[in-house]
Amino acid sequence: MKKFNLNKLFILFLNSSFSKFIIIGGITFLLYYFFLWFFFGVLKIFYIFSVALSYIISVSFHFFANKILTFNNVSNTKNQYFKYFSLSLFNYLVQILIIKFLYDINSLNFYLSAFFASLTTMLSAYLIMKRWVFKEN
Question: Does the pTM of the predicted model rise above 0.85?
């Protein structure tokens, strides 16, 4: 009987584009949360502007990190950035609506609302990035 090799499976997972996307997404989320805390918690900027500034900073990191590390793609940056920007704008609007619903309407903690909003767009973003933004020609 063949022995199941958990180490080999773990290495395969770490080398997959989805795991790289998750790791980069985790780092991006930490950056986003840090800037969200800084703009909203420290500088006391209105939450919609805090989300916007934090989103722009973290999404820029997310684009280049995924372009290079996840999808190993170094060509056609301008066209890809336009596609990515379109995806990011859509995700931003979804996140604002979710935060507005959870924070403003239901009085859930602001940071928890932002967390749920980010989770909502994660899987769709990966699939769209893989199949449209960084699609191999």
Answer: no
